[in-house]
Amino acid sequence: MKNPGMLRFETAGESHGECLVATLTGLPAGIPISTETVNHELWRRQQGYGRGGRMKIETDTARIVSGVRHSRTIGSPIAVIIENRDWANWTGALPVESTEQSEELKKPVTRPRPGHADLAGAIKYSFADARYVLERASARETTARVALGALAKMFLRVFGVEVLSHVIAVGRERLERPAAWEEIVELSRRREVLLGCVDAETEARMKEVVDEAYRTGDTVGGVFEVVARGAPPGLGSHIAWDTRLDGRLAQAIVSIQAVKGVEVGAAEEGSASFGSRVQDTIHYDRGARRFTRGSNRAGGLEGGTTNGEDVVVRGFLKPISTLRRPLESVDLLTREPSLAAYERSDVCVVPAAGVIGEAMVALVLAQAFLEKFGGDSLEETQRNYEGYLEQVKRF
Question: Is pLDDT above 70 for 2?
Fold first, then answer.
């Protein structure tokens, strides 16, 4: 995602290419960085019941090659490399320079999968083979985003902002109660991840849905929720359409592969309610010298600006497009009816999507944070931030 503001990031690489590459430009100097923490986030992305065979091949680890020295940022662009272990099986099919041998080893995809980028991308780039499209469109790309999101999280953590996720729904099974922050924190610390739900009984029912998809050769989607606690009031702005933080967060979440919808706060519930039941009443805590809310149906955002409550964003993930029982399609070469191609794939990725959602929310919040407080060094950013907090208390 490109942003003309202070913090910018970009990813490169293909699903079965040699490696994934990510760059992050704009973090102040002096932020404590732990490669172990980055790798833990990559591990979290690979967990969850319903993941496919690729997760048995890859053990994702990040190698930071610039921008961090002696475990601290130095203000220059950060570059991260994540090797694809599966590349060893694809060197002949996807070489940088073509040879007669590589032509023979090609693994063409001429039967596009409904719901994937295959056909739209092939038409756009005039490819008779959708291989190059799916290689970049693959959710494997989000590995790089999670690595950069981990860096953004470490920056935000200095200022007391934490970003976590949990799963609300898998298929028809849904968590029918709010999740407490303490439950989400406990969930993030687990070493064994099933489906990322804070409620054990609901999670067991979710597993049954995934088992059904396994039995029938199908896939299943769901809903994940990302919660950011500790964001100060005043990030984002109401003054222009592209400065509204809820809009930027929505774009970030929908940019995740297979996400088809986003919700900020209790949007769906609010759309079916009267205004008197939707708005969050305003109160004032004289001891803490801060405004508070009686509820948080707005999801921590009003007028495109954070209001000091938890930022709550949900992503609606469609089922993965690659099915073991393929749907009807058309061959790109013959134009004849055929069954869609099958690539090794997952059955359910909702918990992983939540971790990716955390990364995207962290990156967008870090962008907004630096736009407001600036700073070439962490010390300068902290000074600006603390001055703003004093201003808020005096309001």
Answer: no
